[in-house]
C-alpha cells in the first residue's frame, strides 16, 4: 500500500482533535451532573436550611461530594472508578448519579467479563443500600429488582454507544481504505499510461536516430560525393534531427518501466490515417458511427498528435460500447496547422439504450488525460447540455 497523502493525514488529525474536544465537553458535563445534587444540598445548608439533620444524611452528603470528582478519571481507570463509586453509593443516596455514569463508561470501554463484574458490584452495593436505608413503601425484593433493572438499562445504553462508535469507526476506516486504494489505482493508471507512451516514443525516436545514423554514415564514407547529394543528405539529417528533438520534448518526464514492452517494439504505431479503419472495425461489430474528418492533409499531422487522436477515438468508442451499447456515436476530427486539432466523440443516449455488462475500472479517461496532457493539449469529458456524453480534446499542431 502506498503511503497516505498529506490530505488524509490532515483529515485524520482533524478528526482526532474534534474527538478530543468532544470528550472534554462530555467529561465536563458528567462532572457537573455528578456534583449537581451534593452541590444543591451544600448551597441549601449555606442558606440556613437544615436539609441534612441526621448524621447518616451528613455522611451521605460528604461521600457524594467525594465521589463526584472521581467521574473525571473514569476514562483512564473505568473499572476502578466504577467499583469505588459503587461502594460509596452503598451508603450514599446522592452518589447514584456518578455511580450510573461510571457503569456506563465500563460498558463502553471494557471487555464483556469486566462489564459483568462491574454490574455485579453495582447490584450488590445497590442491594446493600436497600438494606441500610430501606424504603418503607417498597419491599426489599422489589428494591433489589429495581436495582437489577437499572443496572441492565445502564449497561444496555453503554453497549449501544459502544456498538455505534465501533460502526462509525468501521465506516470511516473503510472509506479511508477505499480513498487510498482509489488514489493508488489512479497513480498506477498514470504510470502505466506513461509507460505505454514511453514505448511508443522509443519506436519513433529509434526510427529518427537510425535515419540520422544512416545518412551521417553515408557522408562519412563518401566525402567526395556530388554537392547536391551532400546537401540532400544534410537536409534529411537536419529534418530528422528536428523531428527527433520535437518527439523528445513530448516525452520529457515520462519514465519507462524496466524490462517491459520488448514485444511491442515491432508493432506499428497508429496514426490519424488509421482512424477510418478503426471506425470501420467498430461498425462491423454492429455500432452505428458517423465519422467526419475535416483535415486537408492527414499525412501532415505530426506522429504524436495523430497517435493521440487515434487513442482518443479508440477510448471514446470503447466507452460508448461499455456504457451506451446500441447508441449512435458521432466522431469529428477537425483542424489545421497553427490552430491545432480538435477531436470529439459524442454518443447519444436513447431511452432504451442497451447497456453493456463489461465492467469498467474508471481509469481509461485518467490515462487518456495523462496522454493528452503530455502531448500539450487538454481534455474534456462528461454529459453535455444536449443530453449526450461528450469526449473532446484539443491537441496542438504547430507548423
From TrEMBL:
EC number, UniProt record: 2.7.13.3
Q: What InterPro entries would the database entry show?
A: HATPase_C_sf (IPR036890), Sensor_HK_TwoCompSys (IPR050482), Sig_transdc_His_kin_sub3_dim/P (IPR011712)
| Annotated keywords | ATP-binding, Kinase, Membrane, Nucleotide-binding, Phosphoprotein, Transferase, Transmembrane, Transmembrane helix, Two-component regulatory system
Q: Which reaction does it catalyse?
A: ATP + protein L-histidine = ADP + protein N-phospho-L-histidine
* Family matches, as SUPFAM superfamilies: ATPase domain of HSP90 chaperone/DNA topoisomerase II/histidine kinase
Q: Where are the transmembrane segments?
A: 24-47, 81-107, 114-132, 138-157
Q: Where is the Signal transduction histidine kinase subgroup 3 dimerisation and phosphoacceptor domain?
A: 193-258
Molecular function GO terms recorded: ATP binding; phosphorelay sensor kinase activity; protein dimerization activity
Q: Which GO terms describe its cellular component?
A: membrane
Looking up PANTHER family in the UniProt record yields: NITRATE/NITRITE SENSOR PROTEIN NARX-RELATED, NITRATE_NITRITE SENSOR PROTEIN NARQ
Q: What is this protein called?
A: histidine kinase
Question: According to the entry, what is the taxonomic lineage of the organism?
Answer: Bacteria, Bacillati, Actinomycetota, Actinomycetes, Cryptosporangiales
Amino acid at each position: 500500500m502506498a503511503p497516505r497523502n498529506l490530505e488524509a493525514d490532515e483529515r485524520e488529525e482533524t478528526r482526532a482533535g474534534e474527538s478530543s474536544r468532544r470528550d472534554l465537553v462530555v467529561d465536563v458535563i458528567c462532572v457537573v451532573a455528578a456534583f449537581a445534587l451534593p452541590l444543591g444540598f451544600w448551597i441549601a445548608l449555606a442558606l440556613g436550611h437544615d436539609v441534612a439533620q441526621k448524621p447518616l444524611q451528613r455522611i451521605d452528603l460528604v461521600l457524594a461530594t467525594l465521589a463526584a470528582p472521581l467521574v473525571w478519571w473514569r476514562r483512564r481507570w473505568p473499572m476502578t472508578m466504577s467499583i469505588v463509586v459503587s461502594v460509596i453509593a452503598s451508603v450514599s443516596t446522592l452518589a447514584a448519579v456518578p455511580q450510573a455514569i461510571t457503569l456506563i463508561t465500563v460498558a463502553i470501554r471494557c471487555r464483556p467479563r469486566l462489564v459483568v463484574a462491574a454490574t455485579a458490584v453495582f447490584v450488590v452495593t445497590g442491594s446493600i443500600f436497600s438494606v441500610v436505608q430501606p424504603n418503607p413503601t417498597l419491599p426489599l425484593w422489589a428494591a433489589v429488582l429495581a436495582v437489577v433493572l437499572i443496572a441492565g438499562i445502564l449497561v444496555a445504553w453503554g453497549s449501544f454507544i459502544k456498538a455505534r462508535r465501533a460502526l462509525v469507526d468501521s465506516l470511516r476506516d473503510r472509506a479511508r481504505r477505499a480513498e487510498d486504494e482509489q488514489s493508488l489505482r489512479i497513480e498506477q493508471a498514470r504510470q502505466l499510461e506513461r509507460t505505454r507512451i514511453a514505448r511508443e516514443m522509443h519506436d519513433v525516436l529509434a526510427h529518427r536516430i537510425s535515419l540520422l545514423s544512416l545518412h551521417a554514415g553515408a557522408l562519412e564514407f563518401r566525402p567526395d560525393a556530388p554537392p547536391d547529394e551532400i546537401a540532400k543528405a544534410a537536409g534529411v539529417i537536419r529534418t530528422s534531427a528536428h523531428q527527433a528533438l520535437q518527439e523528445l520534448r513530448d516525452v520529457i518526464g515520462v519514465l519507462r518501466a524496466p524490462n517491459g514492452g520488448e514485444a511491442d517494439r515491432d508493432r506499428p504505431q497508429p496514426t490519424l490515417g488509421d482512424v477510418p479503419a478503426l471506425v470501420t472495425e467498430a461498425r462491423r461489430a454492429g455500432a452505428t458511427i458517423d465519422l467526419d474528418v475535416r483535415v486537408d492533409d492527414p499525412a501532415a499531422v505530426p506522429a504524436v498528435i495523430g497517435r493521440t487522436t487515434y487513442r482518443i477515438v479508440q477510448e471514446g468508442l470503447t466507452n460508448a460500447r461499455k456504457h451506451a451499447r446500441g447508441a449512435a456515436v458521432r466522431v469529428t476530427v477537425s483542424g489545421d496547422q497553427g490552430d491545432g486539432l480538435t477531436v470529439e466523440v459524442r454518443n447519444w443516449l436513447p431511452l432504451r439504450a442497451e447497456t453493456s455488462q463489461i465492467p469498467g475500472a474508471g481509469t481509461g479517461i485518467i490515462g487518456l488525460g495523462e496522454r493528452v496532457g503530455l502531448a500539450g493539449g487538454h481534455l474534456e469529458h462528461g454529459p453535455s447540455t444536449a443530453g449526450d456524453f461528450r469526449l473532446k480534446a484539443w491537441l496542438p499542431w504547430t507548423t
